[in-house]
Amino acid sequence: MNRGKLYGVGVGPGDPELLTLKARRILLEADVVAVPDKGSGEKTALNIVKDVVEGKNLLPCPTPMVRDKALLDGCYEEIAGRICALLDEGKNVAFITLGDPTLYSTYIYVHKKVLARGYDAELIPGVPSICAVAARLGTSLCESAERLLVVPASYEGVDDCLDFPANKAFMKAGKSLPALRDKLRERGLDGEMVANCGMTGERVYHSLEELEEGEGYFSVVLVKEHRNET
Predict the structure, then answer these.
(1) Do 159 and 141 form a contact (C-beta atoms < 8 A)?
(2) Which of 19, 53, 79, 89 has a 20 to 30 A CA-CA distance from 135?
(3) Are 180 and 173 in contact (CB under 8 A)?
């Protein structure tokens, strides 16, 4: 029996209409759809594609929201093992992931482990949240010779990024938003933000000064660099 193939499928930031034609085809053709499960009971990626994968066999993949590398690595090893067992049965598996699988995606760790075991795996790109947020705000990420710095804002130590000469996209801002707003204010900067872009409960802020408290995990802040023209 021929082995199956693993696909890491980016399903976009939240709006089901942003699912690419290729992603849709892969999901329709897959024998099993692997679904990341953060443990909160909310399966955001699955909600985006639920109409496409209706009736499919689903493989729950626990990926807890912790930073214990040893614990996470163990989870990824277990998921990779379960997926490889399906591939050995000749089944094709599509692992769905928010946004794009190459941009701060949990899936990529499973992808590497499956490849390391000698199996075939392919990345299917999706619309990244930073692009969807810029479109929602009606602005660009970069123009002309501008540079873009993408920062995982939920991690500590963003100060050096704030002083870097580039436009900035802060992803997964969440509870760090008040601190980020204050640090930007100290530098005479402000940002625009969309929380839950394309999802239920989407909220748009054209200034971080509109924030009264933190927002959810799926929050992206865009900050434009202001250079002094001479």
Answers:
(1) no
(2) 53
(3) yes
Res 83 pLDDT > 70: yes
Cβ atoms 105, 42 nearer than 8 A: no
pTM value is: 0.92
pLDDT, residue 42, reads: 62
φ, ψ dihedrals at 56, nearest 5°: -75, 155
Distance separating alpha carbons of residues 20 and 108, to the nearest angstrom: 19
Does residue 38 contact residue 124 with C-beta atoms inside 8 Å?
no
- Residues 12 and 132 sit within 8 Å (Cβ to Cβ): yes
pLDDT band at 7 (very low <50, low <70, confident <90, very high): very high
Q: What is the pLDDT of residues 106-137, one digit of tens each?
A: 999 999 999 999 999 999 999 999 999 999 99
DSSP per residue over 95-144, as a string?
Answer: EEESB-TTSS-THHHHHHHHHHTT--EEEE----HHHHHHHHHT--S--T
- Phi, psi (degrees; rounded to nearest 5) at 97: -145, 145
CA–CA distance, 97 with 13 (Å, rounded to integer): 9
**DSSP letters of 48-114?**
HHTTTSTT-EEEEEE--S---HHHHHHHHHHHHHHHHHHHHTT--EEEEESB-TTSS-THHHHHHHH
Angle, helices 69-88/107-116, rounded to nearest 10 degrees:
60
Eight-state DSSP code of residue 12: B
d(CA 53, CA 39): 21
